[in-house]
Design goal:
Pfam families: MFS_1. It is a multi-pass membrane protein. GO terms for molecular function: transmembrane transporter activity. InterPro entries: MFS (IPR011701), MFS_dom (IPR020846), MFS_trans_sf (IPR036259). There is one protein chain. The chain has a three-stranded mixed sheet with strand order 1-2-3. 50% of the residues are buried. It has two domains: 30 residues; 407 residues, Growth Hormone, Chain: A (Up-down Bundle). Helix content is 77%, strand content 2%. Strand 1 and strand 2 form a beta hairpin. The radius of gyration is 24 Å and the shape is globular. With 483 residues, it is mainly α. The protein contains 19 helices and three strands. Helix 3 crosses helix 4, helix 5 runs antiparallel to helix 6 and helix 12 crosses helix 18.
């Protein structure tokens, strides 16, 4: 480097120091002049998302939580109206009725394969907002669908767009919070995939009864518009490589030095980065036993959830003579159980992590998220046995609802520790590992309900749900082994 060049970079470094001392500056970076590398100004740099003010972090979490609640809600909202949908299109197949719900989850399985990689190139925010807009468009299309084929196609595309918050949400939380603070944010985020599908049938049942099934999609579109407006105002980009690259672009423009580059930049083309990002979730799924096993575990739990969604309405409609709207209210059992699980396990998750870290001489391990999973997962088989046999024996209608409440409690107790563990274990690629888990659970959630009517017809509610409970019992040793 000649003396003139050295002087120019010295001046640039001084200017950057002035900017660092200027509290109004939003470009708080440190440039390693000799190597032309732009980096954050230390771990405590306030421009890093983990150092943002709490209000800014939680506005981002709130926006993501709204989305993560709405798009799973859309998956099950039409479940109580399945009979009305196939009747309006003159369809008689019960499997086709279940597929109206399941096809949306196929979209949940396809979307993460593309959306996760795109977010690691263009950032989280652009993908969130683009998918939200597309989600609204396809739900409007569902509301005006002229036949069953178009409805299924529109539901598939809506599901692909709706998979965005499920794919990126855990990565966004990893962007915003250090591991010791993630438990509360992850508990709120994890509630969406469980509570959204619970609230959906409650609202959908009454909407279909009062205004017709098409109004379910109109209301979802309106809610999507409200969430979209909120995100436009309050949500900001949180992915560090993209934020640091923006600073590089500003410095290049200011100095004319095109050799400056981000410390977080990868020395590959955007195309190669995209391909690598697409391959990464697949490699994680097939080459990491932990990712594969826990993704399968989540998939089985999610499959049970949607199996209940597609069968509970008919159980209470035929066995207990509930109306369409009242049958939707029976999903409150799962909802209340999930909320209680959220309050308990969301509260203790970070406390257990901090306690075990202190006992481990200050060394934090991702496995410290596992202890709540060990007792919590017992409640899923308990709830399935309770629900199945109380409905089989035609006990008071409150008894099977209590059973589904235990199922909801167990699902939250399972979902939250596994999701948080995977994010802590693979923080650098949180979006990719979440994509792997989302693909597996969505595929199982899409196709397991299709077997529900035949299974219950052959085995009955008692032994049918007992079989599911025995499978859940077989999964119990997993958290003990990995812990």
């Amino acid at each position: 480097m000649n003396s003139e060049e050295s002087t120019r970079y010295s001046d640039l470094e001084k200017n950057l120091v002035v900017k660092l001392e200027n509290p109004t500056s939003d470009g708080i970076v440190r440039e390693h002049v000799a190597s032309h590398i732009v980096d954050w100004d230390g771990l405590e740099d306030p421009a890093r998302p983990v150092n943002w003010p709490k209000k800014r972090k939680w506005l981002n979490v709130t926006s993501i939580a709204f989305l993560t609640f709405l798009t799973p809600l859309a998956s099950s909202a039409v479940a109580p109206a399945e009979a009305l949908v196939i009747e309006s299109f003159h369809i008689t197949s019960l499997s086709m009725a279940s597929f109206v719900v399941s096809i949306y989850l196929v979209g949940f399985a396809v979307g993460p394969l593309v959306l996760g990689p795109l977010s690691e190139i263009y950032g989280r925010l652009r993908i969130y907002q683009a998918c939200n807009a597309v989600f609204i468009v396809w739900n409007i299309a569902c509301a005006v669908a002229p036949n069953i084929g178009s409805l299924l196609a529109f539901r598939l595309f809506a599901g692909i767009a709706g998979s965005c918050p499920l794919t990126l949400g855990a990565g966004s939380i990893a962007d915003l919070f250090i591991p010791e603070e993630r438990g509360a944010a992850m508990s709120i985020y994890s509630t969406g995939p469980l509570m959204g599908p619970v609230v959906g049938p409650i609202a959908g049942g009454y909407l279909a009864e009062v205004a017709g099934w098409r109004w379910i999609f109109w209301v979802i579109s309106m809610a999507g518009g409200a969430v979209f407006a909120f995100s436009l105002v309050f949500q900001t980009e949180s992915y560090e490589p993209v934020l640091l690259q923006r600073r590089v672009d500003q410095l290049r423009k200011a100095t004319g030095d095109m050799t400056l580059r981000s410390k977080l930049a990868q020395n590959i083309s955007a195309r190669d980065n995209f391909i690598r990002s697409i391959v990464r979730p697949t490699k994680m799924l097939f080459l990491s036993p932990i990712v594969a096993i826990f993704s399968l575990y989540l998939g089985i739990i999610y499959g049970y959830l949607y199996l209940l969604f597609t069968t509970i309405t008919s159980v209470f409609h035929t066995t207990y003579r509930f109306s369409q709207g009242a049958a939707g209210l029976t999903f409150l059992g799962i909802g209340v159980g999930s909320l209680v699980g959220l309050l308990i396990f969301g509260t203790i998750s970070d406390r257990i992590l901090i306690y075990l870290t202190k006992r481990n001489n200050g060394v934090r391990e991702p496995e410290f998220r596992m202890p709540p999973l060990i007792p919590g997962s017992l409640f899923i088989p308990l709830g399935l046995f309770w629900y199945g046999w109380s409905a089989e024996k035609h006990l008071h209608w409150m008894m099977p609802i209590i059973g589904t409440g235990w199922v909801g409690f167990g699902m939250l107790a399972t979902f939250l520790p596994i999701q948080t563990y995977l994010v802590d274990a693979f923080s650098e690629h949180a979006a990719s590992v979440t994509a792997s888990a989302t693909v597996v659970r969505s595929l199982i959630g899409a196709f397991l309900p299709l077997a529900g009517p035949a299974m219950y017809a052959r085995l009955g509610l008692g032994w049918g749900n007992s079989m599911l409970g025995f499978i859940a019992l077989a999964m119990l040793p997993l958290p003990v082994v990995f812990y």
